[in-house]
Structure formats: C-alpha cells, structure tokens
C-alpha cells in the first residue's frame, strides 16, 4: 500500500488547476493517494502550459528532474498532460524517453485507462484530443472539503488572437450544458463550498452554440443557489461582454463585482494586428458602461508588451491608456513568439532588450496606480471571506473582498475559513491591504 501515491505538478492557468484536481479524483478511484513528498510517488503527472516560452522552459526543466528519480525507482509512471503535451505529442518522447505517457487537453477522462495500459505493457503511450479539441467527457469533480472550487463552463477558444497558441491546442469552443454546471454547483453547496470560480477561455461567449443559454442566464441561475456566497469567473473577452451580463451582475446577490477585461494593448494599430475585434474607443465605452452600472467594481486586465511592430509611439499610447483606465491591477506579459501563430512570422519582431525595458516601465506605472487606488481604502471597512492563515505567518489570516482585493489581518477571534469578517484597512500596499478585523 505504501507505494500507492501520486503527485501532480501544475503549470499555467486555473483551467489546469481544475484539471489537476479532477485527475486526482480519478487516481483516487484507482486507489492512489496524493503526496507532497515526491520520493513517495509512483505516479507523477506534469500538467503543462504552452502559452509562453518561459512556461515551456520551466516544464522541460521539471521533466528533466524526474529522470534521476526514475533511475532510482523504475516503477514510477511519469505522465505529461495538458497544453504542451497536446502541442508536442510524440516529440516529447524523443526529448525525454523517460516519459511514459502523453495525454492531451480534454482527455482527462482517459487517464485511468492509459495508466492501466501502461502497467500492463510499459510502452510509451500517447492520447491526444482531435484537431477541434472536442467536448471533453464529464469527469467527477474532486470530493474534498474545499471552500472554494473551480468549475469549467467552456473549453477551447474561437477567437484566434494572432499571438495566441490556445485555439490551436485547446481547439474550438464548446460549452458545457447549463444543467451539468448547475447540478455541480448545487452539489458543492451541500458540501459547504462557499465560492465558485467559473472557468473558460472566454466565458462571455458561454452558450453561443446551445439554444436558450447564455452567460447572463447561467449567472442568474447560479446567483440563486443557497450557500454559495461568491461567484467569480475567468477569463473574459471585452468584445463579448453583453449588457445582460452587466445587468445580472449589478442586480445579483453573489456575483462578485470584479471585472477582468484583458485589453492586451493600448494602440488601435496593434489591436488590429492582434485580431482582437475591438478598438480603443469600443473598449473605453465598455468600461464606462461597466463603471456606471457597478460603481464599486474593481477592474483588472492583461497586457502584452513587445508585440511585433510595436513602436515607441504604440508603447506610449499603451501607457497613456492604462493611466486613463486606472486598473486595480494589470497582469503584464512579454510577447512570446509561438510558432504556428500568425504573429510568429510577422515582420519587425521587437528586440528582447526593448521588450524588457518597456515591461519595466509599464509595471512601474501600473504599480503606482494600484497603490494609489488601494491607499484610498485606508480607513474604510471591507467585507472579507476568510481563506485561512497566510503562507508566512500562522497568526496572520488572509482573505479576499468581493472585488478580489487580498486582505491580511492578525487573527484575534474565532474566524475560520469560509466565514465573512469585517476588516478595517489601515495599511494599503500595491498587492495587499492590511488591517484589523472587527470582532463582535
Ligand atoms: N505572449 C505573451 N502573452 C501571451 N498571452 C497569450 N499569448 C501570449 C503570448 N504569445 C497572454 C494574454 C492572455 C494571457 C492569459 O496570456 O495576455 O490574456
Ligand atoms: Fe488566446 Fe485570444 Fe482565445 Fe484568449 S481570446 S485564449 S488570448 S485566442
């Protein structure tokens, strides 16, 4: 029995985190238990990301590390799963023959079959999704005592932004039936889950290929489920955010007032080359609409610097635009060339050094804005859902506000994970708010 342990390494987005948990559920059906100690594991899974080259490099490093372990214990089964697995397929065996199997995206439900086959034959095995990604079969959600869970609602992406590899690996967009999602969340509510985060590459287009289904309708239904205090979602495409969704959020009890609307750039010329499907003016109007409807909402974004052809002028436009938007936070990325995407063969690729300089400038401007926005909260009282002790100090607790600000306070009461507490903010920083919980 002591050999029945597994360890999953997860890279990339929340969809991968969710898939990793669902793979864990399957392994548990085979009698395996999770372990944090790699030396104990006989199944090791690496759930991969390929959205940027930096992720791929890290993953190759991790695959390399497992080689020595396998030399010591040949019983170990090493599986590489997820996006990079889907993209590279059999090529991975050539680079690293100690890998036992490669399982593509949307193939989570095949995991146990593949493992059973390997145990019998010890041959390399590959199982990849078809070209359009396909609609994955339902996999049991994890049976844990978690308070916060991920719930996939769409798979794949139809947008083909010219820099992005996702539509090529994860295939066309498919929406899960609304009844499956509602059932899953209802079941969670009975096990004490308080927060759900809906996942998809572009949740705003949820239900487009189904009848009588839309993201607004889904949110409306989920808002009614008792016990679920907070509903979040990731990630959105600004072009597809409908008036109905804004309306449902404004009138809801539990849908968080946080809008993550990736703008990607601040210059119309670059947005066009990125195939984003909106102009700066469209985006500006959307944000006005959102902020008028939900005045206390927080707004975050994703931005890429160094897209091919980006001039100093384009970069200046980007800086001006983020100053105008005053985002609560921005996730900033260096453009990474992904072969197979249209942008990879565009002329005027920006030099690495220039990209890095621009990224540093952008981060400095955004950090100042984030800090200014957070400073305004000093002296106010915010409602926080308790997550538990912080990573560095058992006595300091952490949680989030409805609009996704991270709050830290010294625990002096009985609060537990999942509770809602009031915290008076007395020290705001760029990424976190520190304060005192108000008891009784
Ligand atoms: N290079 C850099 N960033 C990228 N993203 C997607 N593809 C690339 C790429 N090739 C970023 C986008 C997206 C986020 C999840 O990752 O900003 O919103
Ligand atoms: Fe990539 Fe664009 Fe789809 Fe997002 S919307 S996954 S950036 S292609």
TrEMBL record:
[4Fe-4S] cluster 1 binds at residues 13, 49, 83. Keywords: 4Fe-4S, Cytoplasm, Iron, Iron-sulfur, Metal-binding, S-adenosyl-L-methionine, Transferase, tRNA processing. GO terms for cellular component: cytosol. Residues 143-372 form the Radical SAM core domain. GO terms for molecular function: 4 iron, 4 sulfur cluster binding; metal ion binding; tRNA-2-methylthio-N(6)-dimethylallyladenosine(37) synthase activity. Its EC number is 2.8.4.3. Its cofactor is [4Fe-4S] cluster. The keyword Metal-binding applies. Residues 4-120 form the MTTase N-terminal domain. NCBIfam families: miaB-methiolase, MiaB/RimO family radical SAM methylthiotransferase. Monomer. Belongs to the methylthiotransferase family. MiaB subfamily. Catalyzes the methylthiolation of N6-(dimethylallyl)adenosine (i(6)A), leading to the formation of 2-methylthio-N6-(dimethylallyl)adenosine (ms(2)i(6)A) at position 37 in tRNAs that read codons beginning with uridine. This is tRNA-2-methylthio-N(6)-dimethylallyladenosine synthase. The lineage of its organism: Bacteria, Bacillati, Bacillota, Negativicutes, Selenomonadales.
